[in-house]
Amino acid sequence: SYVLTQPPSLSVAPGKTATLTCGGANIGRKSVHWYQQKSGQAPLLVIRSDSVRPSGIPERFSGSNSGNTATLTISRVEVGDEADYSCQVWDSIIEQPIFGGGTKLTVL
Amino acid sequence: EVKLVESGGDVAQPGGSLRLSCAASGFTFRSYWMNWVRQTPGKGLEWVANINQDGSEKDHVESVKGRFTISRDNAKNVLYLQMNNLRAEDTAVYYCARDSQALDYWGQGTLVSVSS
Asked: Which of A15, A21, A68, B42 is deepest in the core (most CB within 10 A)?
């Protein structure tokens, strides 16, 4: 089945830009969704369909998708952005949603 | 306001059964596919099952097929997950999530712990 690969961790200083990646074979042909999960909380959709921000999500969050890599970019990172970020696509072969393993973003 | 509230999580013995519920409000429940997604402590998200608007189409991840069954009651706005023959590896927080291509709203989760 389709596999999504995310780096397990990323550290970034406040005010800098965080670039989180999600790798998969020809992922650019798929629609990628990104979820933020803060400690002890439910996942929150922050980017849908590669680059669409749901209502209420700050403009600092943006997404792109091309080739074999989808990217979630968080500009002007804040301490409150510290969370696990997971990507998700629809696997058209097995017709099921697939999640990446998640990246833990640390803001320090 | 869209709200999803799970319940039914508990400690169960291997081979036991539980039924999870997800009460939906704030949107037209019967108009959406719905999903169950689980998360093992300290691990990533794993999709478990989904069901279409009228319950006529459903699917489950291979590891739970024949043991878990997703269903819904559109009159009551409730999503269910019947879990039979539970295994230790089913221990997780179980979330229900609304499906609009992406999983756009999630409940707070309910903990299932399978242990003897």
From this structure: A21
Could you tell me if residue A68 is left (phi over 0), alpha (psi between -120 and 50 degrees) or otherwise beta? alpha
Q: How many CB pairs under 8 A join A and B?
A: 53
Contact B108 A42 (CB under 8 A): yes
Question: Which chain A residues are Cβ-neighbours of B47 within 8 angstroms?
Answer: 96-99
Judged by DSSP in three states, A60 sits in coil
pLDDT (tens place) for every residue of chain A, 108 residues total: 899 999 999 999 999 999 999 999 999 999 999 999 999 999 999 999 999 999 999 999 999 999 999 999 999 999 999 999 999 999 988 889 999 999 999 999
